[in-house]
Design a protein that fits this description.
CATH architecture: 3 Solenoid
Shape: globular
Number of helices: 2
Distance between the termini: 65 Å
CATH topology: Pectate Lyase C-like
Radius of gyration: 22 Å
Helix content: under 10%
Strand content: 35-45%
Oligomer: single chain
Mean pLDDT: 94
CATH superfamily: Single-stranded right-handed beta-helix, Pectin lyase-like
Number of strands: 35
Largest sheet: 21 strands, parallel
Number of domains: 1
Low-confidence stretches: 1-17
Length: about 375
């Protein structure tokens, strides 16, 4: 009798994991090796608009999917759900092709994507609006690749992108097409293979409180905004490695301005480990304002002399707590303390990067400090 009750209860729990009490509303689907839906692709075949898919932590080798539903939440539970391509791909494009609108991806790890045309991605975004949180993308030809969609907003926070790129210079850790906006905060980008750490053609770009570093890689630009756009680059630590294939850390408008030409670069810590370089490379016609940035290593602040630049300070490595381990918080004796200029509210860095992939509120302690961190 007890065994019979146990079997019945197990069946009921399994069914409840698939269909909630209100079968007419959004459903929550559970995925895992010990569940009725063993793989994310199985959930992609049955989920509907507005549903939530909870994927047990663990490795899902060779499982790829196309998501066509709108308003989906796809979340790893108990840790990250690791999707290893293992030679597979959806539509010759990615581990996940997301064709639905307003998708949220949380705590998912994507690795190892290669496709015949050399442009494979962890995620290929084809729908409108995508939010990425607490997720990892590594050893893919592209980390994330999006198409052009003037109504789409891409938001990435608390995530890591590393060792992506096919070595051809056309594939990158993050590559966002001509969307309405891109926001990247509290994230850790490093080690792109020949391509850029971050490339965006968005009409508006907000890149705030990230650690972006080449390490030993042959990455090109750390931040590439090839078509300009109304952009804020603020509160980041950006380290160009000695093997970088391009001498500029930030590039703006290199392929021609197609929209707004307004760029604010505020409160960043820029480190150039090459023998020469330019911290911010600006195309003709760009309207750039550079405030309160710390410069470490050789090179000019900007490629043009007619930019609005104030309170940008060059310092040595002794100004920082532990630069060998990417800890660029200020020491008490740093000359950057209380040396900053006033910046309009909408352009101020309100966050600081918190390793390994997070962000903290930047405090107000007297006059603003120069660089990515405020000395407590």
């Amino acid at each position: 009798m007890r065994r019979t009750l146990s079997v019945i209860l197990g069946c009921l729990l399994s069914t409840a994991a698939l269909v909630p009490a209100d079968a007419g509303g959004p459903r929550t689907w559970r995925v895992g090796p010990d569940r009725e839906l063993r793989t994310p692709s199985a959930a992609a075949a049955v989920a509907g608009d507005g549903d939530t898919v909870l994927i047990d932590a663990g490795s899902y080798a060779g499982d790829v999917a196309t998501w066509t539903q709108d308003d989906l939440t796809l979340r790893g539970v108990g840790g990250r759900a690791h999707l290893r391509a293992d030679g597979e791909h959806a539509q010759g494009k990615a581990i996940w092709v997301i064709a639905g609108d307003r998708t949220t991806v949380d705590r998912i790890e994507f690795s190892g994507t290669t496709v015949p045309d050399g442009n494979g991605a962890g995620i290929r975004q084809e729908g409108t609006d995508l939010t990425i949180t607490r997720s990892w993308f590594h050893h893919n030809q592209n980390g994330i690749l999006t198409g052009a969609d003037s109504a789409s907003d891409i938001v990435i926070t608390g995530s890591r992108f590393f060792r992506n790129g096919a070595g051809d210079g056309q594939t990158h850790n993050i590559y966002v097409g001509a969307v309405r906006s891109l926001t990247v905060t509290g994230s850790y980008l490093w080690g792109a293979d020949t391509g850029h750490e971050l490339k965006s053609r968005a009409a508006r770009n907000t890149v705030v409180a990230n650690l972006i570093t080449d390490r030993d890689a042959t990455a090109s630009y750390s931040i590439d905004l090839p078509n300009g756009g109304r952009s804020l680059v603020a509160g980041n630590v950006v380290v160009q490695g000695p093997s970088s294939e391009n001498s500029a850390l930030v590039s703006y408008g290199a392929e021609g301005l197609t929209g707004s030409s307004r760029l604010w670069v505020v409160g960043n810590t820029f480190v150039n480990q090459r023998s020469s370089g330019t911290f911010v490379n600006l195309t003709t016609g760009s309207d750039a304002t550079l405030r309160n940035n710390l410069l470490v290593g050789p090179g000019d602040l900007a490629s043009r002399d007619d930019v609005s630049a104030r309170a940008n300070l060059r310092v040595g490595l002794r100004s920082f707590v532990d630069p060998a381990h990417d800890d660029y918080r200020l020491r008490a004796a740093s000359s950057a303390i209380n040396r900053g200029a006033t910046v309009p509210k909408q352009w101020r860095p309100r966050w600081e990067y918190a390793h390994p992939s997070g962000k903290d509120r930047r405090p107000v302690v007297g006059r603003v400090d120069v660089g990515a961190y405020e000395r407590r």
